[in-house]
């Protein structure tokens, strides 16, 4: 009897899952790669949704990177949409998968498995949050629903949660002509971010007439006479809103993995080593459902982001096929745009740094984005965080009208190299009047911070 | 007899010189710091001149960072303008300085000396290059002269030399309404740059109707009937021009240092160690007259740039005062704008890498500057150069309509950390549709180059 061709199964077909499946096929064209995706769509750029929603003329489908047809014909992936994996038997190397369309269930054996079940938007288990007009923004269906809601010309939106999505959507919904109120239960918008960055973003929100209520806990959503949502009530007041976006974060989808006995990390996501291998050596996990090695913390953390999902997916796929590729890890880089501001960060927040036993010191400077002698440009604010005794760079935030997001990449690169503040001072950054002053804002901040840390020149 | 207060002498008062003098005063307010500057002006941002010339309404004085009055009163520097140091007696710790205004000469003793004599524009020792209408662009006086020439409404400019200044000025002079011809003796514009970058810049020049002649040696400049320059003749043709800008590079001013017996490096600039100390332990040198430690080459080189001058000046000043501050070195970062293009580089060129015994491999990719799903942006081209056998990153060039210059800072940071191509692939760079695609162009280039180098994952 001829040896059966080994089957690779990938659970989940968005960023990490399709990266894993494609990587396996790229490395071994003859490999049999099955992907089970619970939804109807694969491989889309969810991070692009706010910018898509900003433009009524654009189709949500613009965000699809690879269609199911392309995955099948161009990449040779055995793709199953509307298929939900219900049970995982690791000892038996078999899983139970349900075809939601055909309402059938069957067993599927596998030699190696990649779990890429992603994360889901947290929903508020409060009265009224199932009313028409209330939505989250996680997958393309949510995006389409939100665009449909906008076509009915709502007048006033309430956004619950002032994180990245909340900020981006405040901008987008103002652009679409709505009044916007943002409600955040923490004492500040952008929880975790440095007060100096927060203050610049608050100014932008105020300038653009976004109403912000921090430290306010949502109690319920109320319906109007038409049965649709009409208001959000918090412990501090009542806000009229005929559109409500719940943007209170995401949680990793780990039910399947946990039930199968795979180790769940302290973060609540699936534990993996730097090879994206789970506690079972024949199972890999990648993307928003799994932890990531953090290079500054030198341990696992959970920071779900699309770019990380793509990288981890490739690695999980390669290693499922027998490669030995290590994920170098993340440093916690993220950014977004809100009105005329670029807002970006990398590394640890002050709170996180303290929590992890560092003795962080921070400095914030403001500087023009171009040379004084050059017209245009605007202020760029740089906050740097370092460990006081050692001078080790721990993180940074950059906020400004131009060049802010890309300047964070200097910090991301420095963090990957475990640079100190003195190392940062010594960088040979580009100087040309249209792009940067003689002392780039990052260098000015480093020079300033060097005065308060230990081992610097 | 009370001990005389030690005197610090700085020769040269532009970028490095004033940084050194200011650093000494900052560290020791009571120090006696004399600065001898040959010209009338100090501390100006020469790199801003092209952008200043672009705007007829702006004064050249906008580029002055610190006036002589401010240097004296605010910083307490004993500044002597129009003073030229003619001779240096290192054994006797004394120099001979000539007051060009008063036509007097005197001795000045010093305890410690910082040489910051800068560089001068090379001039063409050819017939006609002393005609009215021919200029270089090195100090503010040159800038004023060029602005004055533009007021007489010349119609056609010839720029000799297609380096940074030549490119910036081609742009500026086109903006000011002139026809422009660029003449370069090397076979390509931007000598040393990768052919892929050159090609993008050539396209921009052609789109903006700048005439370019490479591989052409200038023979003479010819006068018109009015006695002013009217044409430039090369071995390949004759080009009408009533304005001629010689932008063929700069040479370090080392006559004084060489005559005093200080070591001159292989580059022709003053040799220094990483403490900016010359071969005489009581003499420091900084800025365009001195060499710089190159972190990729791990040896001295000569790349005169304003940002390096500022850093070295600070270090020379601190060390002249007894500090022990080490200059980490440069990695060869530079950038400029030409028409709608940002053009920037860092590290070694292919030629230089070969010359230094590396076995360089290079790759060029083009990618959009923002996510596909996001409107606007444009192509960014990234060229990466690495050592084939080791995978060590050696350099890179980025050319594009936005975000190109700041992306080079990722490479500058990676080069400072001696990263490999694999290290670059592993960077956690910011992803947000308005700023960057999921795979930043730098990562795409690194992934591509990884296929051809040795030790990569």
Layout: helices, strands, pairs:
Two copies of one chain form a homodimer.
Chain A: E1 7-11, H1 15-27, E2 32-36, H2 49-53, H3 68-73, E3 78-80, E4 83-89, E5 94-99, E6 104-109, E7 112-115, E8 119-121, E9 134-135, H4 140-151, E10 156-160, H5 164-175, E11 179-184, H6 195-207, E12 210-214, E13 218-223, E14 229-234, E15 237-240, E16 243-246, E17 250-252, H7 255-259, E18 283-285, E19 292-294, E20 299-301, H8 306-320, E21 334-338, E22 341-347, H9 350-355, E23 360-368, E24 379-387, E25 393-400, H10 404-416, H11 421-425, H12 441-450
Parallel strand pairs in A: 1-2, 1-7, 2-3, 7-18, 9-16, 10-11, 10-16, 11-12
Antiparallel strand pairs in A: 4-5, 5-6, 8-17, 13-14, 14-15, 19-20, 21-22, 22-25, 23-24, 24-25
Helix pairs in contact in A: 1-8
């Amino acid at each position: 009897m001829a040896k059966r061709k080994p089957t690779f199964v990938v659970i989940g077909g968005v960023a990490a899952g399709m990266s894993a499946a494609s990587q396996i096929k790229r490395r071994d064209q003859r490999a049999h790669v099955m992907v089970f995706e619970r939804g109807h769509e694969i491989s889309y750029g969810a991070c692009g949704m706010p910018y898509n929603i900003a433009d009524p003329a654009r189709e949500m489908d613009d965000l699809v990177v690879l269609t199911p047809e392309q995955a099948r014909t161009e990449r040779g992936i055995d793709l199953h949409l509307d298929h939900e994996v219900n049970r995982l038997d690791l000892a038996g190397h078999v899983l139970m998968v349900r075809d939601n369309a055909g309402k059938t269930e069957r067993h599927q054996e596998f030699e190696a498995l990649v779990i890429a079940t992603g994360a889901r938007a947290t929903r508020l288990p409060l009265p009224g949050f199932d009313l028409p007009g209330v939505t989250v923004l996680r997958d393309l269906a949510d995006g389409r629903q939100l665009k449909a809601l906008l076509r009915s010309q709502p007048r006033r939106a309430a956004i619950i949660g002032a994180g990245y999505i909340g900020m981006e959507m405040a901008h987008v919904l103002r652009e679409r002509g709505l009044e916007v109120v943002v409600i955040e239960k923490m004492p500040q918008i952008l929880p975790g971010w440095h007060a100096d960055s927060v203050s610049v973003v608050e100014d932008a929100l105020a300038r653009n007439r976004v109403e912000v209520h921090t430290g306010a806990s949502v109690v319920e959503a109320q319906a109007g006479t038409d049965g649709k949502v009409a208001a959000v009530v918090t412990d501090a007041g009542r806000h009229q809103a005929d559109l409500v976006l719940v943007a209170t974060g995401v949680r990793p989808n780990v039910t399947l993995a946990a039930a199968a006995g795979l180790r769940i990390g302290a973060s609540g996501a699936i534990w993996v080593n730097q090879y994206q291998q789970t506690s079972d050596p024949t199972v890999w996990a990648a993307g928003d459902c799994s932890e990531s090695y953090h290079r500054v913390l030198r341990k696992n953390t959970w920071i779900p982001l699309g770019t990380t999902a793509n990288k981890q997916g490739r690695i999980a796929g390669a290693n499922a096929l027998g490669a030995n590729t290590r994920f170098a890890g993340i440093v916690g880089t993220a950014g977004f745009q809100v009105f005329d501001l670029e807002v970006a960060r990398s590394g640890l927040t002050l709170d996180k740094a303290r929590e992890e036993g560092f003795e962080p010191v921070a400095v914030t400077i403001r500087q023009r984005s171009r040379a004084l002698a050059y017209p245009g440009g605007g202020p760029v604010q740089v906050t740097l965080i370092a460990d006081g005794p050692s001078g080790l760079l721990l993180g940074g935030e950059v906020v400004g009208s131009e060049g802010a997001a890309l300047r964070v990449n200097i910090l991301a690169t420095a963090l990957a190299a475990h640079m100190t503040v003195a190392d940062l001072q010594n960088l040979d950054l580009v100087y040309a009047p249209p792009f940067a002053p003689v002392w780039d804002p990052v260098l000015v901040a480093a020079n300033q911070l060097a005065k308060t840390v230990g081992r610097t020149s």
